[in-house]
Amino acid sequence: MSRPTARVVHLVSRPTGEPIGEPTADNFAFLDETVPPLAAGEALVENIHQSVDPYMREEMDETGSWELHAPLEGRALGRVVESRTPALPVGTLVHHRRAWRTLSVVTPDETTVLPDFAGVPLSAHLSVLGGTGLSAWVALTRIARLQAGETIFISAAAGGVGTAAGRIARLLGAGRIVGSAGSPAKVAHLTGHLGFDAAFDHHDAPLADRLREAAPDGLHVYLDNVGGDHLEAAIGALRDHGRIAWCGAVAQYNHLASPPPAPRNLYDVVGKSLRLQGFLVRNHLDARPELYDFLVPHLRSGAVTPDETVVRGFENVVDAFLGMLRGANTGKMIVQLTDEPR
Predict the structure, then answer these.
(1) Max Cα-Cα span within the chain
(2) pTM
(3) What is the mean pLDDT of residues 34-48?
């Protein structure tokens, strides 16, 4: 009996050129691979949704985990279509990290069986209920410990983590939510649709002035997804004993050979008794049940809707990834490979 064929993407070269490290479609190649017969304990998953994320840019470099001419790592949601393990019967919906392909061979310890949340779209497990939403939840509740009535600034606020953080901060009772984004349209999206109290285009420098206008009484919390000049401006605007949860540094992902200078006011962290803490969400996976308990009722009621940019078709996965790095998305960028099950 013939075996199915999977469409896969390999990394075939590292980013080079100017700007430093700007990735292009030429760094990737699409291939067709025959799926081998399953071994005992394996299952075959037809992928439905794939995530493309900022961290993947770093994986493309020599120091990253992506090897050349080999399958790539990434988050995906799919349906088991063939199985040789009772732990993953046919029809089971799972989350796994063997993305960048239409079909994935997995084992039970490489997958998470998705909970059945009636009324919640499957794609939410890659956005507000996935690593994106979990990053926002951990940043706000465990790292920054946002309190009701406090003022928070979120950089890259129109991205996946930023939009989730804005939703969660409002539900946690934040007093004032301020965001930065990369275009007037995104600024309007933040204030008109996501409930931000103020937002500004980060191209309208100087950032310190824009932040002072948006938060005249200062900040209690800063959720940093950018680094560089955003971090400097936030340090200047933070009140004494403010907290910084550092999640990402998109300002330097394509400039690893010449990263932006450290904030010139870094010593103010001492003078203001600020707390700056970075974190990796993979070290906080135990927080996922907390996120489910908090957010699922709001998703079911319609009080919260996942903020997603969905690109259809596996053939567009590379374009979606490159577009995400250029800021083409609002909310979480997701590639939909096939229709969700009813």
Answers:
(1) 71
(2) 0.91
(3) 98
